[in-house]
Structure formats: structure tokens, C-alpha cells
Amino acid sequence: xxxxxxxxxxxxxxxxxxxxxxxxxxxxxxxxxxxxxxxxxxxxxxxxxxxxxxxxxxxxxxxxxxxxxxxxxxxxxxxxxxxxxxxxxxxxxxxxxxxxxxxxxxxxxxxxxxxxxxxxxxxxxxxxxxxxxxxxxxxxxxxxxxxxxxxxxxxxxxxxxxxxxxxxxxxxxxxxxxxxxxxxxxxxxxxxxxxxxxxxxxxxxxxxxxxxxxxxxxxxxxxxxxxxxxxxxxxxxxxxxxxxxxxxxxxxxxxxxxxxxxxxxxxxxxxxxxxxxxxxxxxxxxxxxxxxxxxxxxxxxxxx
Length: 304
Fold this sequence. Notes:
Blueprint: E1 15-19, H1 24-35, E2 39-44, H2 47-60, E3 66-70, H3 76-88, E4 94-97, H4 112-142, E5 153-158, H5 171-190, E6 196-203, H6 209-215, H7 223-228, H8 237-248, E7 260-263, H9 267-271, H10 283-302
Parallel strand pairs: 1-2, 1-4, 2-3, 4-5, 5-6, 6-7
Helix pairs in contact: 1-8, 3-4, 4-5, 6-10
């Protein structure tokens, strides 16, 4: 980023929960919110990862409040306990549904456990967090603590560019992310009168360790985008940070709600943006991909 896009204190007074905020896209968005004056809370199953991120931010942003939670969002009571803790310490103004899981696999080879590993995080977990936060915002509005002239409270969910077309070889994620898009549309209508707006962002490839190792195993991060994307490159974290800030900034464009914004350099328009090309893989290639994905899973489990 060559020059600041936003006023330095644009997010002052905001407190935003970012699920999966200790790494990858969630880490980048959290850091941008902090730099613009917001307080953040991050959660994830790997508490040490969240704490490490928070320690670095406290050095960089000493005036900001940063909370960390070790939470498996697949467990509704654990989500409720976290959100109640956040409300007992001042509540929230925003939520980023970022936590996710995904990997490539032929659908006929998936076990019920493998399907649930994705659906329970993306579909169930995102709903649990959204409902736990949203019902408290609704209660505040009913109690007169939010008025129509106040800034709206914001939910932004990370989806995928292929929620409309579907995608082979990532069916659990495709189904779950499509559900989150429908949740976004539905609650934008249901909760608008309570001062809550919901939008979603479908980023194309923005290389992170977790995503790259599970969706493009054995490839150099970003290489597929360089070869196939109309802009001949992968996305940049700063681009997602800027879009997320626009959607989460208080009172700037509150009439925008229920929308899904696809940010992928027109890749989905040109190619479908999915994993159709993997139909050409041999059994040996799928075997190698499974080994690389499992190696990444073991590395993640060791960090919990």
C-alpha cells in the first residue's frame, strides 16, 4: 500500500471480534482495524497462536485493547461463553466470520468425519457466533440502546467466489459457504430494523500457509493465479484489508447490506474460479496431495 486509504482514527470506538484472527486473512484484517483505532478480540483453537499475535500487536498498538480466546466455534456453548465474556467487558460493534477449513478431495472418497470437519466450522460455527452476537445486538435495540440515527453494527463473513456455481473437489466447503451467503442475505432483512447489517466477501487466491498447503498442495503459492487469473497475479492482503475496512467502518455506507462482493481479479468470471481442472489428476497425484495436506494438518495440531 503506497498511501493510506482511510483516516487514521476511522475505526475509533469500534470493538470487533475476528474468528480465526491469529493467522492468515483474519490476522491481516485485525491488524488493519487496530491501526485505524479499533479494539479487537480474536479467537481460535490454537490459543498460543492467538496470544503470540496479540503480544506483537500490544507492542505495536499499546493504546488498543486486544482480547484472545481459545474457542472451538463448532461447540455452541463455548461460543456462548466467549460472547458473554465479551459483553461483560463492553460488548462488540462488529464481527468478522473468518474461521474456516477446507481441503481438496474427490467427493466419493470423503468420510462423514471429513465432511463434518469442514461443515461444523464453516456452516455451524459461523452461525453459532453470528447468532450469539446478533441476539445481544437485537436485545440492545429492543431496550432502546440503539437508535436509527446511530451507526449500524456490522457482520462480515468470508465466503468463496464459487458460491453461485459450486465447485468440484471442495464440496463440503462449497455447501457451507453457500449457506453463509444465504444467512447473510436472510439476516440482512430480518435484523435491519435492529441496526445490524451483514455483508460477505469472496476473495480469490490470497496466499496463506493454511490455504495454499490444503488447496494447492505441492505448488508455489500464487502460481496458479499467475497462470490463469485475468490480472496474472494473486490478490494482496492490503486489498482485503481495505475492503474489510470499508464494510466495517461505522456509519459510512450503512445502506449497503445483504451483499456478497467477489474480489478476485475477475477470475471467477473468466474461469469459474473453482477446481474443475483437477479432473485431470491421476490417482498418484491425489495420493501425493493427501500426504501434503495431512502433513499440514499434523503441523497445525502440534501447535494447539
